[in-house]
Each structure stands twice: as C-alpha cells, then as structure tokens.
Amino acid sequence: xxxxxxxxxxxxxxxxxxxxxxxxxxxxxxxxxxxxxxxxxxxxxxxxxxxxxxxxxxxxxxxxxxxxxxxxxxxxxxxxxxxxxxxxxxxxxxxxxxxxxxxxxxxxxxxxxxxxxxxxxxxxxxxxxxxxxxxxxxxxxxxxxxxxxxxxxxxxxxxxxxxxxxxxxxxxxxxxxxxxxxxxxxxxxxxxxxxxxxxxxxxxxxxxxxxxxxxxxxxxxxxxxxxxxxxxxxxxxxxxxxxxxxxxxxxxxxxxxxx
Length: 259
What we know:
By secondary structure, this protein is an all-alpha fold. It has 9 helices and no strands. The protein is elongated.
C-alpha cells in the first residue's frame, strides 16, 4: 500500500471520530459559560475535554504528516493546520483553544469530498454564531461597563455583527471582546462573499452549459448540411450532369423522341 493511499485511508477513517470530538469540544466550551454557577469539578472536566480534543486534532496532524509522501509540501500546503496546532501551546487561553479547534475542524471537514460547499457554509455560519456568542459572553459578562450579560444578548450581538448590521444596542467594551467582534465581522463578510461567488458561479456554469449545447447543435446542423451537400454532389456526378440531377420524364422523352 502506498504512502498516499495510507494517508487517504487515515483521513477517511478519522473523519467522523474527529467530528464527534468537535461536538464534545463545543459542549465542554459552552457548559461553563452558559452555567455560570457551575462548580469547579465541572469546569475542570470541561477544560480537560477541550485539551483532549485539541490533542486529538494535533495527533491527527502529526499522523498525516508522517504518512505524507512529501512532508515539506504537506507542511507548506497545510500551514493553517500547523498554526492551529501550535497556537494553544504558545498561550493556553480558552479562546485560543476555541480558535485553533475551529480551524482544525474546518480544515478536516473540507477534505471530505461528500461535504458540499452549501453544507460547509451553513455549518460555518452556525458554528461562528454559537462560538462567537459564547466567546463574547465569557469576556463581557464580568465587565463593569459591559452590556452583554446574558446568552440572548450575546446571540443577538453576534448575529447583528456577522451580518454587519450593528444596531449598537449591544457592543463589547473589553479589548478581547473587540477582537472577537473584528473576527466575526471579517468572517461574516467572507462567508457572504463565498455565498455570492457560489451563486454567481452556478449561474455562469448554467449559461456556459447552454452555450456549449447551442454550439454543439449548430455544429451538428453544419455537419448535416455538409453531408447533404456532399450527397447531392455524388448524385449529380453519377447522373453525369454538372451538378443538377435531370428530371426522369424529360430524359425519357428525349430518348423516345422521333429523329
């Protein structure tokens, strides 16, 4: 079995388990934020789940690197994966683990051929909306001047920020909250661009398909006309005329006419 096929089999084998771990990470990240009265054991368990999930994605990256035929090319083509793996090591913040895990889930999800662009974009919107709300709530809830105190406020703020509407009724006041806001705005613009480009590409492909079909029909008609012209020329040559087939009655009358 070649190295390339081993890498492909590994990616196919780990696709669903990693998605399940991503769901576990989402729960581990959300529980301490939604339930602000959660005890220390619950918080520690959720933190452990987050690190375990990140460790699973990091291990997946290392295994794919080991199975790659050209390791330098693999690192060059998957540099975002590498950044996502290294990011939580540099500074063990929960927000960094959130960003890195979202990056790794997105990269691995794009490798699955069965996941179409529409599904990916829809999942990205839901994921960014959920994690953006939880992230901003975690940093703004205890801010003295903050006005994002509940999960409902956070979801509403995330939705208006991602759609670049920005009513201004809720806004982050901390530095980290503003960083999250910038990330959501850029992500919303990027996703809107992807959707617009996908729709435009669909229309262009339809027009190109119609144009190709029209050209094919035109070529078929021209070929048929050329064949008809060639047949007429052959019939005229067999009749001995200059290109016009003589009428049968006129030929018979000339043959039986008196001299």
